[in-house]
Amino acid sequence: MFAALLFAFPLLASLLALIVKDKRKLDILVLLHALLHLCLGLQGFIYRGSLGMMDDMGLFIFLITSLLFMAVAFYRIGSGKDYSYKAYRVQSIFLMLFIAAMDAACMARDLGWIWIFVEATTISSAMLISSENTKSSLEAAWKYLFICSVGIALAFVGILLLVLAQPENAVLSLAKINAATLSPFWLKLSFIFILVGFGTKIGLAPLHFWLPDAHSEAPAPISALLSGALLNTALLPVLRVDKIMRAAGMGDLAQDLYLLMGVISVFIATVFILKTRNYKRLLAYSSIENMGLIMIAFGAGGVATYAGFLHILGHSLIKAALFLTAGNILSLYHDKQHANISGLWSLNKSTAWLWMIALVMILGFPPSPLFVSKFFIISGLIARGHIAMVIALILMLAAIAWSMVRIGLTMCGGETKEPRMLPLWTYLSPSALLLIAAVVGVWLPILK
Amino acid sequence: MINILIILLLPLFVPGLISRVKAIMVGRKGQSLLQPYYHFLKLLRKDEVISSSASFITRLAPSLALSATLCAALFVPIGLSESIFSFRGDVVLVLYLLALAKGIMVFAALDSGSSFEGMGASREISFTAFLEPAFILIMASLIFSAGFNSLNGLLHSYSIGGQGVWNIVVGAFTVFALYLMLLVESARVPFDDPNTHLELTMIHEVMILDYSGFSLGLIHYTAALKMLIYSSLIVQIIIPQTTSLPMLWFLGGIISTGIVTGILESLMARFRMNRNLELVLVPVSVAVLAIAALIAKSIGV
Amino acid sequence: MQEILVLAFGITLLFASVTNMLSSIIKILVVQGLILFGITLLKSTHLNWVGFAFIALETLIFKAIVIPWFIDDTIKHNQIHREVEAYVSNFFSLALMSLIFLGSFALAGFSGQHSGKLFPLEFGIAFATIIKGLFIIIANKKLITHLMGYLIMENGIFLLSLAVGGDLPHIISLGISLDIMLSVLIGVLFIKRIKSTFDDAESPRQLRED
Asked: Among A58, A429, A82, which residue's Cα sits nearest to residue A224?
């Protein structure tokens, strides 16, 4: 019943948004959607099973999306004046549709439907990325739409091969697939296609090119949702198919593939983080790095699997806060090159604080939950005997940490003219996200 | 006996036919169908000039090429349905006899020391590099569907009119690929132009610039014979198995191949030289597709 | 008959490798759409009018008429240069196409031993089509050619879903068609908008890692 509302509301609201003539009313519609989303998420969290088709994994991602959506909805109230009315309306409509598509992808338990909904997220978010209608945002949106469509097409090949792997009466519903009867050859091939296909959307190497462009060109609230919610939603199908792989006794192969893709992604992210000059791209590469770490966590298995979920949570919250703060910096300086930015500290103290704290937290210093998760990932890797990988990983993480802290400090330091203030909401949203992350980071280890 | 007569007499008829068709297509009356024969006889009566720097290869090449091509022709069912010689696997021998003829001509072109002829030789040999695998693959697809046999037996047990869809498919692919090979091998229009007078664009013609008189006559005859060999391969695949008049079918097939070629030459322009190589690859690709499809089919449910 | 259609599909791929004109690739898309329509018709033995409507909508209307028309319209409107302008020579792409065929059929042959319900001929051609589509995307610099490569790849996927032989629910295949339709629509829209913001709609190069 409530679940039906989850999809009916955004559809009706986006129709309503077509006739609304005021930015304030658009904000109200989005806020209502966010509120509904969060309520449903909490209901599902407190009364398990009350959301019908939602399983634990889906609920987890759903809750993260709820938190981010709430923060983004409030942030937009503060940053709405930066856009023309038309662009803002397009953004609001597709934002709600985007969220609905992600919810559907979380809920669906049939691979065919999951595929369709993930593709729907691509289409709706491509419109979001290009909503500013500048040269580079158009190109970024095109690249995003195109590479993700190709990736998702490969995933569909994987799904077809999974049909092929079943002896008879093939089904796509994940619960009904009988892993014991699958043909190993086709299952392996199918898994590789699914991993590469959805991996495109997760932002894993080798098909990660769209991610830095899309994340750096999209408006700040959209970047936050792309990085914090969309990447997780794309990860979900991989994890669901992973269960089948385990049941068919090929978990080892899957884990090796995760490790391989994860390490390559972290490596590529390191190289580009050291090289890039655009602070939003820096954050985007950091997303690639963290998604790589998450894959490594699932590859390491054992206790690191839980660390993987914790990392998903921590990364989403902190990265969303970072992108929102980056939006603040952008509206203060109107420049995306971090070499041109200095004196953030004297210009706007709150933004500078947020920026530095979030940067330090994404690197995994306590009380960030990423500290705990990285610790368990490393120990999981050591337990599996991948010592060389651990050393390489630590070196790469150190390089990333050095680079990001250096960039953060040069941006904050220095003198500028008069201090300038921004709307209150644009500080509150990221700080709320960081606070939740810190609470999780402190509370979870105590719980252990 | 009839076969030998056809092999000896028919070849020069085809080039004459083609130029006649071309002439009619552009509204001229055209030369006599027997013109190539007169030309051939005239050349045979003439003296020849041989470069003082040429070695024995230049002298040897035309006659060796002719004899190799003639030997190859003996294994091909030209004329009546039976070839003169045949044994299991003679396909490979035919292929290499043709390659020998081509190889010695390439050597002769290099022997002259002229840079133009060297260029022509390099082009000719780069075409051959792709046509030989095409020929092998085509024969392999025939062998796959009809069983290992002599060339004669293969063409007999196989014809487009046979039973089953796959016969038609493989037959159509084979005819297509063989026809492209015919155009390339006998230097016809989309790939090469026998009438061109610019050395830079010549392929086959530039290789024989140094020849004259008797040798030139032999070379013309060899080229015509090679064309006849390819057209009879095509015709033998198209001819229905159960026919009471194989001879009539054969002659009709050869004549229509000539007419088709003539029409094609009048309608098409030459390809740009740098696109030639990719089009020479087409027969290989078609043959690959044909044999791969056949094998997949045989594995299939 | 089905097999001949599938082979004709393979021939269109060879043709795609030797052609240099955008308009011939559009024709290839049309022909492929028609062939897919034919194969689907022949494959579905029990066909009520709803099923027929689905098939006709997916293949005939979308693949063979609407999408090629969109692309043709885009090319004309944006005055995109009519040649393909690939990074690699046709010779190379044709040679690679042969290798792709060999590889795909090897996989198809291997597959015969692992799954009883496969049609190896269709599987081989379908797989080759998917790889060819990817290759077109990689080896070209124009946006519109990327879109065409994507469509060829989607045709391959459609053929693969026929080859797999399992009965995918119609609604899913329709959903997929709608997806493709939408992405192409949006893609065309983008190309038009890119044209109006850039001077050159063929291959914008704004975003580069410096």
From this structure: A429
Query: Residue B100 is which amino acid?
Result: L
Q: How many beta carbons lie within 10 A of that of residue B26, not counting itself?
A: 8
pLDDT digits (tens, 9 = 90+) for B239-282: 776 667 778 888 899 999 999 999 998 898 888 777 777 778 88
B282/C117 touch (CB, cutoff 8 Å), yes or no: no
Contacts of C178 (CB under 8 A, 6+ apart): none
- Confidence label for B61 from pLDDT (cuts 50, 70 and 90): very high
Q: Quick check: do B and A touch, 3+ CB pairs under 8 A?
A: no
Cβ pair A354, A422 in contact under 8 A: no
pLDDT in tens, B159-192: 655 566 777 777 888 888 889 889 888 888 887 8
Size of interface A-C (CB pairs under 8 A): 110
Q: Choose among C11, C90, C101: nearest Cβ to B292.
A: C101
The ipTM is: 0.88
In a domain, C185, yes or no: yes
- Interface contact C91-B277, CB threshold 8 A: yes
Looking from the CA of C60 toward its CB, the CA atoms found within 13 Å total 11
Domain map of chain B by residue range? 2-299
Quote the number of domains for chain C. Answer: 1
Q: Do chains B and C touch (3 or more CB pairs under 8 A)?
A: yes
| C-beta of residue B118 within 8 angstroms of C-beta of residue B269 | no
User: Is residue A49 assigned to a domain?
Assistant: no
Is residue C204, in this structure, part of any structural domain at all? no
Name the maximum alpha-carbon separation found in chain B.
67
- The string of pLDDT tens digits covering residues A261-312 is 999 999 999 999 998 889 999 999 999 999 999 999 999 988 888 899 999 9
* Domain of C117, in residue numbers: 2-197
The residue of C5, C83, C94 whose CB has the most chain B CBs within 10 angstroms, and thus the best one to mutate to test that interface, is C94
Could you give the CA distance from residue B276 to residue C57 in angstroms, rounded to a whole number?
A: 41
Residues of C in contact with A217 (CB under 8 A): 207
Taking alpha carbons only, the member of A144, A119, A117, A118 closest to residue A130 is A144
Q: Which residues pair with C86 in a beta bridge?
A: C140
Q: Which residues of A touch C206 (CB under 8 A)?
A: 135-136, 139
Please indicate, yes or no, if residue A12 is contained in any of the structural domains: no
CB B255 within 8 A of CB B109: no
- Evaluate if residue C195 carries a pLDDT over 70: no
Task: Please give the residue range of the domain that contains residue A278.
Answer: 259-448
pLDDT over 80 at A75, yes or no: yes
Q: What is the separation, in whole angstroms, between the first and last Cα of chain B?
A: 48
When divided into structural domains, chain A yields a total of 1
Which tokens belong to A161? Answer: 């091969």
Q: Which of C24-33, C70-79, C181-190 has the lowest mean pLDDT?
A: C181-190
pLDDT confidence tier of residue B1, bands split at 50, 70 and 90: confident
Residue B130: closest C-alpha in chain C:
C95
Dist. CA B45–CA B37, nearest whole Å: 13
pTM across the whole model: 0.86
Give the B:C interface size as CB pairs under 8 Å: 79
C contact test, residue of B126, B169, B285 with most C CBs within 10 A:
B285
Rounded CA Rg of chain C: 18
Whether residue C27 lies inside any domain: the answer is: yes
CB contact under 8 A, C209 and A156: no
Measured between alpha carbons, how far is A110 from A118 in angstroms, rounded to an integer? 12
Distance, in Å, from the CA atom of B262 to the CA atom of B258, rounded to the nearest integer, reads 6
Asked if the C-beta of C115 comes within 8 angstroms of chain B's C-beta atoms, the answer is no
Residue C111 — very low, low, confident or very high, per pLDDT cuts 50/70/90? Answer: low
A42 inside domain: no
Chain B: list its partners (3+ Cβ pairs within 8 Å). Answer: C
Cis peptide bond prior to A367, omega within 30° of 0: yes
